[in-house]
Amino acid sequence: MTEPGSSRSRPKGAYDVVLSFRGKDTRKNFTDHLYTALVQAGIHTFRDDNELPRGEEISKHLVKAIQESKISIVVFSKGYASSRWCLNELVQILECKNRNTNQIVLPIFCDIDPSDVRKQTGSFAKAFDKHEEQFKEKAKEWRKALEEAGNLSGWNLNEMANGYAFSFYGSLVGINLKSFIINPRLVNL
After folding, report:
1. 97-128 burial string, b = 16+ CB within 10 Å, else e?
2. I need a labelling partner for 101 at 20 to 30 A (CA). Which of 36, 126, 129, 133 fits?
3. Could you state, in order of their start, the residue ranges of all structural domains in the chain?
4. Are 120 and 90 in contact (CB under 8 A)?
5. Residues 89, 95, 132, 148: which is the catalytic one?
6. DSSP code of residue 105
7. Predicted local confidence at residue 172, as pLDDT
């Protein structure tokens, strides 16, 4: 199946990139611009647009997208840790990365310091105060995932001037992602 805007063929449902983000924080601004830049570059990108009711279990469709993707981009924001859905999604992403050495996780820190993610301080500490009351064991798993993700090399948008956000999208898409995505027509040559 050929995706709109892409000349590459791929099996139906296989994604190059999965975007993980807290919709309430970044859906209508940063993540929307990033998604548009990826799609315009011909990169088959999954984002959860369904606004499904958030429970503890992530959807089978999302799990499949994560498992089959080459890259997961995790957009951390101030409210990310308050969402059990986002935290469960992050655990799934890192489990796939750790099982499949070819899968890449790229964190983007949007209005949050990477150390807040890594150490669960600031708004992340407040979220975990609530989580640990109800989900003691699960909170340990989430903390471990946040620490691992916070230690990955990524981008801290707080260190970029607002005028450079659009050039960031272009550099992320043009340089970093395309080098990781293999054109299926080149395989078996």
Report:
1. beeeeebbbbbbbbebbbebbbebeebbeebb
2. 36
3. 17-176
4. no
5. 89
6. E
7. 59
